[in-house]
Design brief:
- Helix content is 37%, strand content 20%.
- With 229 residues, the chain is of the alpha/beta class.
- It has a nine-stranded mixed beta sheet with strand order 7-8-6-5-4-3-2-1-9.
- The longest helix is centred in the last third of the chain and has 18 residues.
- It binds pyridoxal-5'-phosphate (PLP).
- Pyridoxal-5'-phosphate binds next to β9 and α9.
- The site of pyridoxal-5'-phosphate (PLP) has 14 residues, from β9 and α9.
């Protein structure tokens, strides 16, 4: 199934009007499909798998902003550290430490979003609100956030439950926005929340109504995926 250019143009206009950043999720899709959206002006692309991202980065234009949106294993951070634009799924303090040390080696500062667990499903990764607060406050284990000079936490990311229940999805997004708002005033050298990444093909309109300013959209633009992973 080819890239849906018409959908892209309509969606892109809608989101621009609302100041919502569109991350086109191109996982499992060929470089030709990415290039097709690039040619229409899209620059932010999201990938879930390190190996696939590294290969695509090498093959495609250098001004693409690559978002890593999947679950990132610590031992793979080094492969994407030289070029990744934003890591959405930071779900442990140890991962943040590893990103910091790999970013240092590349002489970069890497922007990150902390992934919050908002869904009822237990399989989705992320912090709960208490853990987030612990990272921010001076719980001894976390005091070093200020000393991690090569990462910058610029926002939060979350995924709603995989469900047909729109009220449930809405309440989960609303909860994430509430967590975001209650920490937005907090500002340190490398922590300042401005980005709220929530919403996918099936639920992005609800997410935007609930305050998202970054959506991650795949199948709506690229068609359904055949999972090979
Ligand atoms: C695959 C994926 C998306 C995009 O999903 P669609 O339903 O195809 O829009 C968004 N976010 C994450 C974390 C994903 O893994």
């Amino acid at each position: 199934m080819p890239v849906n250019k018409e959908s892209y143009l309509v969606l892109n206009n809608q989101l621009k009007e609302k100041n919502v950043c569109l991350v086109a999720v191109s996982k499992t899709k060929p470089v030709e499909d990415i290039q097709a959206l690039y040619d229409l002006g899209q620059r932010d692309f999201g990938e879930n798998y390190v190996q696939e991202l590294v290969e695509k980065e090498a093959a495609l234009p250098k001004d693409i902003r690559w978002h890593f949106i999947g679950h990132l294993q610590r031992n793979k951070v080094k492969y994407i550290a030289p070029f990744v634009h934003l890591i959405h799924g930071v779900d442990s303090y140890k991962l943040l430490e590893e990103i910091n040390s790999q970013a240092l080696k590349c002489n970069r500062i890497i922007d990150c979003l902390l992934q919050m667990h908002i869904a009822i499903e237990t399989t989705k990764f992320g912090f709960n609100e208490e853990e987030l607060v612990n990272i921010l406050k001076t719980v001894p284990k976390y005091q070093q956030l200020n000393t991690m000079k090569n990462v910058r936490v610029i926002g939060l990311m979350g995924m709603a439950s995989f469900s047909e229940n729109k009220d449930l999805i809405r309440s989960e997004f609303r909860n994430l926005k509430k967590i975001f708002d209650s920490n937005v005033a907090l500002s340190t050298i490398n922590f300042q929340l401005s980005t709220l990444s929530m919403g996918m093909s099936g639920d992005y309109t609800i997410a935007i109504e609930e305050g998202s300013n970054m959506v991650r959209i795949g199948s709506l633009l690229f068609g359904e995926r055949n999972y090979t992973h």
